[in-house]
Design goal:
154 residues, mainly beta, five-stranded mixed beta barrel
């Protein structure tokens, strides 16, 4: 039997407040739009930037955590799997969606402390029992910003 893996990890910023809804079956679902960016210098030395937008969905407890604690602009770590689905819109056109089904979420800064949540936790509290979450956020840095007396990036 061969194994397979469907896993995605992103760190980015929310483009809007989470949209929370309840399905007809009573399940809570949160839709997030998360932006990730990369920067590089082109052949002419001009700085370039590309932003990718990712649709992320969280179910049940994690959806409620998103509604309660996240807002536009917040930086988050998301771990989950890629899912593809299709539906028919009002005009009868078939539409395709690629989204990340989130299983774990860590809030990175903005509220004083980082908090980590995963889909297996029953409560809206930090997972893995970490008594002292790190207070630093994952800020981007470039190696040319380091000084000789500060050659470590942390």
């Amino acid at each position: 039997m061969s194994r397979s893996l469907n896993r995605v990890q992103i760190i980015g910023n929310l483009g809007a407040d989470p949209e929370l809804r309840t399905t007809t079956g009573g399940a809570r679902v949160a839709n997030l739009s998360v932006a990730t960016s990369r920067r590089w210098n082109d052949r002419q030395g001009q700085e370039q930037e590309k932003t990718e937008w990712h649709k992320v969905i969280f179910w049940e407890n994690l959806a409620e955590v998103c509604e309660k604690y996240l807002k536009r602009g917040d930086r988050v770590y998301v771990e989950g799997s890629i899912e593809y689905r299709q539906y028919e819109d009002k005009e009868g056109q078939t539409r395709y969606i690629t989204e990340i089904r989130g299983r774990e979420m860590i809030m990175l800064g903005g509220r004083g402390e980082n908090a980590q949540f995963d889909a297996s936790s029953r409560s809206a509290g930090p997972s893995r029992g970490d008594p002292s979450p790190a207070k630093d956020s994952f800020e981007e840095f470039s190696s040319d910003s380091l000084t000789p007396e500060d050659d470590l990036p942390f």
